[in-house]
């Protein structure tokens, strides 16, 4: 996989030092992402898609804190949830995580039947920002994963470097071996 785009160019908005810091930040994130995909998750992969790299990691369903009535409350996975998917979208040039995206994951079984399609909300994680949620899958097996990322509507600085992420992108991971369960 070629995960390098040409680096951003110095401009009226970003000097060489700022761009160096952005690359350092992104490379630290990429190192953490590779650790998650290779060493922590049950399965995972990354794919170059236009201006971004899209990655996924799959684990057993897990509990999360949620804010309810101004209090953080721990919630275990719903009874039928047996899988947790994480999705990352990073800038292909500097590898920084891209926030505020509309990310949708579609899971397709080995017979080509769509199991479900869900928006993947942002999840704060102490080691790796990502989009994700728990899922209820029929069981272990091979699934295809389609990840759709809408073109974001957030404003962009920089007349030279700011014309990125202008089109929706899609990643497709075929024959992903999924092991369901609960953490």
UniProtKB/TrEMBL annotation:
Gene3D superfamilies: Periplasmic metal-binding protein Tp34-type (2.60.40.2480). Keywords: Signal. The keyword Signal applies. It comes from the Bacteria. Belongs to the UPF0423 family. This is Iron transporter. It comes from Ciceribacter thiooxidans.
């Amino acid at each position: 996989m070629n995960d390098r785009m040409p680096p951003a160019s110095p401009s009226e908005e970003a000097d060489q030092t700022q761009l160096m810091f952005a690359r350092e930040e992104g490379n630290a994130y990429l190192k953490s992402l590779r650790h998650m995909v290779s060493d922590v998750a049950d399965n995972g992969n990354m794919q170059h898609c236009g201006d971004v790299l899209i990655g996924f990691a799959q684990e057993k369903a897990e509990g999360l804190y949620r804010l309810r009535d101004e209090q953080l409350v721990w919630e275990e996975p719903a009874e039928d949830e047996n899988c947790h998917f994480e999705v990352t979208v990073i800038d292909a040039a500097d590898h920084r995580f891209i926030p505020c995206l509309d990310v949708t994951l579609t899971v397709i079984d080995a017979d080509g039947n769509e199991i479900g399609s869900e928006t993947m909300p942002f999840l704060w994680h102490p080691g790796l920002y990502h989009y994700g949620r728990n899922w209820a899958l029929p069981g272990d097996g091979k699934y295809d994963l389609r990840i759709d990322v809408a073109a974001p509507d957030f404003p962009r600085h920089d007349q030279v470097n700011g014309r990125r992420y202008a089109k929706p992108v899609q990643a497709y991971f075929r024959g992903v071996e999924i092991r369901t369960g609960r953490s």
